[in-house]
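Input record, target 12 of the design panel.
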């Protein structure tokens, strides 16, 4: 995100970040901790927002969509089109199995009507050196717990002030930067660290 802000000539606080999937407001809190305070993350139906043409102005999409149903493929389609038509880069935290799915190239490669759409080869990945863990908000934990009780299934969980900690899949960042891609890759040492690793090819992913 710092690289995106730098290429746009903005400070982290000026960069407008859009996360279309709301989950307890954690996105706003976590990004604010590292200086990105201009975040749009509303408790609303993202697909209704698309249908009603109410996408808010923003510089970049940063999101972790739900892994159930068709949310991932729909999120990829939106981000690819948003990049192609509006020039807005995107970063999505997704499971490791996504790049092997049939919908992945279909979601990220050119469509006959998207002349500017980047191909999958212009994507890269930012993989953590340690497995990511997720916090499920307490309100959703109650629903999940009730479902398990009704199904007579027991599952060990780790609770905390933010909810329940889980790690159902290996996950990492899928990144599409469009015109910023080449410069970002040249500057990869700027955002590669002992905590994450830049990966250029899917064969090197976990």
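The sequence produced for target 12 reads:
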């Amino acid at each position: 995100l710092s690289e995106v802000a730098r290429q746009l000539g903005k400070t982290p606080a000026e960069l407008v970040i859009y996360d279309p999937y709301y989950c307890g407001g954690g996105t706003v809190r976590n990004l604010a901790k590292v200086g990105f305070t201009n975040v749009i993350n509303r408790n609303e139906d993202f697909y209704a927002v698309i249908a009603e043409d109410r996408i808010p102005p923003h510089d970049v999409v940063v999101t972790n969509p739900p892994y159930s149903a068709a949310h991932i493929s729909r999120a990829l389609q939106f981000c690819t089109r948003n990049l192609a038509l509006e020039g807005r880069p995107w970063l999505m935290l997704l499971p490791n199995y996504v790049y092997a799915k049939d919908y992945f190239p279909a979601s990220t490669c050119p469509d006959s009507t998207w002349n500017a759409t980047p191909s999958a080869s212009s994507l890269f990945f930012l993989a953590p050196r340690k497995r990511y863990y997720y916090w499920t908000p307490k309100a959703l934990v109650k629903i999940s717990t009730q479902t398990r009780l009704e199904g007579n299934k027991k599952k060990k969980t780790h609770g905390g002030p933010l909810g329940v900690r889980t790690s159902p899949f290996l996950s990492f960042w899928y990144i599409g930067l469009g015109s910023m891609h080449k410069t970002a890759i040249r500057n990869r040492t700027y955002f590669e660290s002992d905590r994450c690793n830049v990966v250029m090819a899917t064969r090197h992913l976990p």
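The two ends are 23 Å apart (CA to CA).
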